[in-house]
């Protein structure tokens, strides 16, 4: 996992900078294969280069500014919405929302609700498919605890998937977290879990397609 508190920006280049090494490596391989006259391999690596650019796309989003609105931290499909008796990080009863990101989704993660970073817990873990229930506890993950202005707390958890092998988190303990800000990404397929106070009014259901920084998951009451 990488950490760099200088990451947060108001506007992003259309491709996330973390994708540059992958793009340059693939583009270089394409050029070499073209010079060698290996047409089939050249076309394959050219297609791969375009796909990597597509994967690391980082579009700007318009974040709703409703004072109590909680926005999605990730693009993808909601695969779990329910109250849980405990979280993997404490014994509190909370509402859990899980969002599965396929390799075709934007993978840049965003802050769901204004607050301050209270704690960050990184766990090496395994690499089960991210849509499985056991992925929440057993997979490599990075849990971020954020304290709101009224001193309530919620968790955002970046979870690596079957293919993903690199969680990137660009915020640190004590940083200010503003709703809609980019804070990191997970490379090549993954999942985000959000744990919210039990009195949160949930606005999404399983099967809902959401967008990071735009789709409202619920409201703090």
Instruction: Please write the CATH class name of the largest domain.
Output: Mainly Beta
Main β-sheet description: 8 strands, antiparallel
| Number of alpha- plus pi-helical segments | 3
Helix content: 10-25%
Q: Per CATH, which architecture of the largest domain?
A: Distorted Sandwich
Strand order of the largest sheet: 9-5-6-7-11-3-2-13
Question: What global shape is seen?
Answer: elongated
Mean pLDDT: 86
Tally of strands: 14
Distance between the termini: 34 Å
Structure notes:
The protein has 221 residues and is α+β, with helices and mostly antiparallel strands. It folds into 2 domains: 17-55; 69-219, Glucose Permease (Domain IIA) (Distorted Sandwich). It is built from 3 helices and 14 strands. Strands 9-5-6-7-11-3-2-13 form an 8-stranded antiparallel beta sheet. A hairpin with a 5-residue loop joins β6 and β7. The protein is elongated.
């Amino acid at each position: 996992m990488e950490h760099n508190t200088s990451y947060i920006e108001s506007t992003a280049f259309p491709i996330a900078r973390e994708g540059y090494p992958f793009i340059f490596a693939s583009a270089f391989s394409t050029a070499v294969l073209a010079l060698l006259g290996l047409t089939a391999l050249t076309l394959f690596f050219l297609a791969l280069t375009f796909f990597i650019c597509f994967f690391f796309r980082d579009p700007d989003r318009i974040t709703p500014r409703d004072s109590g609105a909680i926005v999605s931290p990730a693009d993808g499909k909601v695969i779990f919405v329910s109250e849980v008796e405990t979280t993997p990080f404490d014994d509190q009863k909370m509402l859990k929302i899980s969002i599965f990101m396929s390799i075709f989704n934007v993978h840049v993660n965003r802050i769901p609700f204004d607050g301050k970073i209270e704690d960050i817990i990184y766990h090496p873990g395994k690499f089960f498919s991210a849509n499985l229930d056991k992925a929440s506890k057993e997979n490599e993950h990075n849990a971020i605890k954020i304290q709101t202005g009224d001193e309530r707390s919620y968790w955002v958890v970046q979870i690596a998937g079957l293919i993903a092998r690199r969680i990137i988190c660009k915020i640190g303990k004590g940083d200010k977290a503003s709703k809609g800000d980019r804070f990191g990404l997970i490379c090549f397929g993954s999942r985000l879990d959000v744990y919210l106070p039990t009195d949160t009014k949930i606005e999404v259901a399983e099967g809902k397609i959401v967008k990071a920084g735009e789709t409202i998951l619920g409201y703090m009451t």
